[in-house]
Amino acid sequence: MTTALITGATAGIGAAFARRLAAEGRNLVLVARDTERLQEQATELHDRHGIEAEVLTADLSDDEGMVAVEKRLADRKHPVDLLINNAGFGNKGRFLEVSMADELTMLKVHCEAVLRLTSAAAGSMRERGRGGVVNVASVAAFVPRGTYGASKAWVVQFTQGVARDMAGSGVRLMALCPGFVRTEFHERAGMGTDNIPGWMWLDADKLVSSALADLAKGKSLSIPDPRYKALMGMVKLAPRGLLGGVSSRAGRKYGPQ
Fold first, then answer.
1. Is the pLDDT of residue 208 over 70?
2. Beta bridge partner(s), residue 134
3. How much is the average pLDDT of 231-244?
4. Does the pLDDT of residue 220 top 70, yes or no?
5. 3-state SS class at 28
6. Angstrom distance (rounded) from CA 255 to CA 257
């Protein structure tokens, strides 16, 4: 039985990945900061699907938490076959309205943690000649959106670059770029969502199904919905200045996952 490790596993997209992978019969390593929620989730998934669900409490905004997850990913005796780098958050406010400490924490979680955990997982996966890494980014990666958008753009570029470097190794890497998803993401950031049209919202479980199908096809980039694929096609054609204006009025306040 294969094992998947999921960061940010207790809510939203991470929890949807956990449900889907458990239903497929995969053992899980569930990573988040809230031990109680992790234990409740692990018990529920074990009882429902008969899989083993390991709990790893870790805060990826500090080195201690990152080291703990790195060690688990590098464990050759209990290998991880699929890594889902999902942990992330948003900050409410424009540039200079958000504290520098919060900006730096975002870079640590969105960039440094993704770099370090991908490296730890990919090294052992390459030795075995198989494995997969999904790094959750956002469609915000394709528009000017301050630190959040820049960090997600880094995730996309990094993931696709590593995917090319590891071609032929048996290890697949994919950047997942969702749009607005009904999760705890916006509530935790204190962001309102009333002005977001209903058609822009995605279902987390359907998103995960699409993402896993794209990974199986060997794609290095997944935008898992026709609506957002069309929108991103339009973004490529729009003037950069126009995108920046739209983003500053709406995206900073209502950023997608």
1. yes
2. 84, 174
3. 56
4. yes
5. strand
6. 7
Q: Name which of 56, 57, 136 is nearest 90 in CA terms.
A: 136
Counting every residue written for the chain, the total comes to 257
Rounded Cα gap, residues 251 and 213, in angstroms:
28
CA 30 to CA 185: how far, in whole Å? 18
Within its chain, how far is the Cα of 120 from the centroid? Answer: 16
The answer to whether residue 228 is catalytic is: no
- Marked catalytic residue, from 17, 148, 180, 254: 148
For 91-106, write each residue's pLDDT tens digit. 888 899 999 999 999 9
Nearest to 219 by CA among 173, 167, 158: 173
Residue position matching structure tokens 């449900």: 19
Query: Closest by alpha carbon to 186, among 140, 122, 232?
Result: 140
Q: What is the pLDDT of residues 172-187, one digit of tens each?
A: 999 999 987 765 554 5
CA angle 223, 224, 227 (to 5 degrees): 85
What is the spatial distance between Cα 135 and Cα 8, in angstroms, rounded to a whole number? 12
Closest CA to 21 of 59, 52, 57, 55: 52
Cα-flanking dihedrals φ and ψ of residue 23, to 5°?
-65, -30
